[in-house]
Amino acid sequence: MKSNLTRRRFMATTAAAGAAAMASPSILRAAGAPIRVGTYGGFFEESFKQFIFPEFTAATGIEVQSIAVPTGETWLVQIKNAARANTAPADVSLMAGTPRSEGASQGLFQTLDESKLSNLGNLSDTFQDRNADGGLFGVGGVSWYITLCTNSDEIPEAPTSWAALWDDQYADQIGVLGLATNSFLLEVTAATHFGGTDILSTKDGIAQVFEKLSEIVPNVRLWYKDEGAFQQALQEGEIPMGQYYHDVAGLAAAEGFPVVSTFPKEGGILDSGYWIVPQHVEPMDEVHEFINFMSTPETQALLSRNVGTAPVIDPALTDLSEDELAAVSSAGAPIIPRYDIYKDHADYISDTWNKMIAG
Amino acid sequence: MGGLARYLTLVPSSVMIGAFFAVPFALILLTSVSTPDDAQDYIYAFDLQHFERFATWFYIERALFSAGLCALIAVLSLLIAFPFTYMLTGFGPRAQNTWLIYILAQLSLSEVLIAFSWQILLSRTAGLANILVWFGLAEKSFSMAPSAGAVLAALVYLAVPFSVLLLFPALSRLDKSLIEAARTLGGSPLRTFFTVVIPVTRPAIISSGVTIFVLTLGAIIVPQVLGRPQHWTLSVLITDQAIFNFNMPFASALAVVLLVLSASVIFAVTKLTGGNKS
Lengths: 359, 278
What we know:
The structure holds two protein chains of two kinds. By secondary structure, chain A is an alpha/beta fold. Chain A has helices at 11-22, 43-60, 72-84, 97-105, 180-183, 185-193, 203-213, 227-236, 246-254, 284-294, 297-306, 322-328, 339-344, 346-357; strands spanning 35-40, 64-69, 92-95, 128-130, 136-151, 174-177, 220-224, 241-245, 259-262, 269-276. In chain A, strands 1, 2, 3, 4, 5, 6, 7, 8, 9 and 10 form a ten-stranded mixed β-sheet that branches. In chain A, 53% of the residues are buried. By secondary structure, chain B is mainly alpha-helical. In chain B, 75% of the residues lie in helices and 2% in strands. Chain B has helices spanning 2-32, 49-54, 57-88, 93-107, 111-121, 129-134, 148-173, 176-184, 189-200, 202-217, 221-226, 234-244, 248-274, and strands at residues 35-37, 41-43. The chains are: A alpha/beta, B mainly alpha.
């Protein structure tokens, strides 16, 4: 069994990241000191260190100190605690949607200077996170898909729709993520049965979607919080189907496991890590240069080829071939998570979700 | 003069207890009654909304389930550990030390490691079910996790080494002449065990049981990896609230409930079982 730590795995990395944060006190920055860049620990960070940071240093002369960060929610707590002590655990780091919007509402991130980001135009508006007064605080870095993954030994013909989650022939055979905020199953239900995620805009709508979603409970064997737990079960065929990360499923398949990742016709779930800069970070010029470098078509192509992420810019701008692009994304419209509802109806969604999955 | 000196020696430990136990606890208590605030997440106030949120059948049921599960684990681990420890005290010092070092080594395994090992042990492809097939007891291999039994087995596995180490001092100090007297008076070994050994070591049994209970109440990884959501304990829900839902106040309120729960169990057990003992 392979043991690569993946970016969203939390239990093993939480402790390590805590130690890393303690071991990196804020030292007065001398000119030419490296900037501290945080990416998800494990395979992700390794790839960044090997393929991306050397290119950045070659292009700008700025050294990078790589920092492994845990899953977004845990990392946000560390940023918050550091801010209380007027420091930041990293100068710039990747963060996914739900914690990012939470951090922004608590004012934990710095507003960026758009005049220093000449490549910002490569990114569509959805990849530019702004606060209420229009200030830019998050810039898309990498995207990844959550798709419907199957074990091809157990299920030779992979279903092509998320509707398979409701199919009673898969009773007690499915694995899905254990939280409303990282499984995005409300969005999946809305896209599959209610024609899109607009219904989630009201609490009544969310209640309706929950009612439909609760029908999958008898099919679900594992509500996983740890990627490793599900990946092993999927590879071995114990749990032959479920939602999983397209990039890691691809890695497993490349290693010879009978794992197939399918983009359902309603779309894969597209989640993204954006670059955010915590309060109290000092080398702002270098950080802007870094974000600008990451937004170039060349870097985005480099990421797709070596880290397995989908580009956050129009693929036409990159020199990625059709096959290379197909390996990391799909042409169909994705399901975009509604991060806003997890903030506006946080308690309601978490209570209803907990009751639903506990049967 | 002697009195003052004695008080002075208490100062370092009091400061330690104050700084590392009382202050964090006071902060949790304060957070649990805080009120939401738009600008900065939450502010200290006296607001019982988080306890009101707890007071629904779902969360109360979770709390009762957690207590029941942990009580069962305490009982099961004592049932396994007590006879073993009793027999261990009969061995020579060399054998005892070897065993104790072996058991201590078990404690260095993390809950994460244990949870994932059990996951493999109970899996369909590499698990125990294959042995059942081999013996002809089952037709084809099946997966034993996630299930209540899996959670129970892994947590008992975690708790047994602690039970042995907690019981060992009392059992090794047990006055062997009591046993000899009982045997001389015609008691069978089994009868002696139940009417002499167990009553004499009762305080140790109770304190070990309570310690195991409190210890397993804090388990979060085993229930998540080996259990279904209906087997998740209150500690899992606390972690979810604190880390994934950013709701420190509600997490704190649940933690206070958990604390009250374990305190009342400790109180009830010591009251019921220790009160009439001279």
